[in-house]
Amino acid sequence: MEKQEEKDAIFATSELVLNIKSRMQQMNPAQKKIAKFILENLDEVQGMPIGEMARRSQVSEATVSRFVKFLGCGSYRDFQTEMVKSNALKHEKIRGYSDVQNLDGGYQLCKKIFESNIQSLVDTLSIIDSEALEKTADLIVEKRKLCILAQGRSMVTATSIRQRLYRLGISCSCYSDPHEQAITASLLGEGDLVMGISTFGRSKNLLKNLRLASRNKAAVIGVSSYRGTPLEKISDIMLVASNNEEASFGFEPSCSTVSQMVMLDCLYIMITQRMKEEAQQCFLKSCDAIESERE
């Protein structure tokens, strides 16, 4: 029988590893070499001299020094201190999308995919900025209006939160077309809220239109799965989820989308808390309207 009782606990990934993963998109080729070496050799890296780290990563010692400072460590010694903390929390590597084999049976395949998504959720909880979420909830409840800009797969997240918010009576629009985004951004002004959703935080058209909205004095809320992105630099409030996807995987995993949607689910519930009975009344009215459409 393929399916077995497996109850392995899934723990949050260490802060250092999450920091490295969240900044991969901003690294230059040399930095990515170091990051890849560290992530693939966590057990060996602890206590490793800087010279050996440089040699095995195929970069210079100066590059390693710049890399650890890029991560926020004051020195290589500080980096090694963080490695000790990281390995104190280590656990068995969760197998994910990139570990799927052609010969995997149905249950084994499902287990790998589920574990990868669960790991992303656990990691997101460990880094979530609840104060930023609460501030966003306060603004949305105060303004009762939100414009969402997104493209590609990020539209899945965008349409999900839009649908839930307008059922609470909040005026919520969502645009993916660059021209529609540009028109909308040009008409936003002081007191308006715009949310930009981008997994990598680097979509050119999206960023251009968010900058336009910002110049018009609209408040920008960014949603991404990476730190240090162009999106973060132009956002007044930044909401960051974890991303447990492997860049080398040949298909399109859903980890970042799932973790972003659950993070925004927290935002949604915070909004309902603030709206209290009004939220309940709006939701019940919308339920009655939908029920009349069912056979």
From TrEMBL:
Top-level taxon: Bacteria
Transcription regulation as UniProt keyword: yes
Swiss-Prot/TrEMBL keywords: DNA-binding, Transcription, Transcription regulation
Annotated protein name in UniProt: MurR/RpiR family transcriptional regulator
UniProt GO BP: carbohydrate derivative metabolic process
Keyword rRNA-binding: no
Residue intervals of the SIS domain: 136-277
Gene Ontology MF terms in the entry: carbohydrate derivative binding; DNA binding; DNA-binding transcription factor activity
Originating species: Candidatus Choladousia intestinavium
Annotated HTH rpiR-type domain residues: 14-90
Gene3D superfamilies the UniProt entry points to: Glucose-6-phosphate isomerase like protein, domain 1, Winged helix-like DNA-binding domain superfamily/Winged helix DNA-binding domain
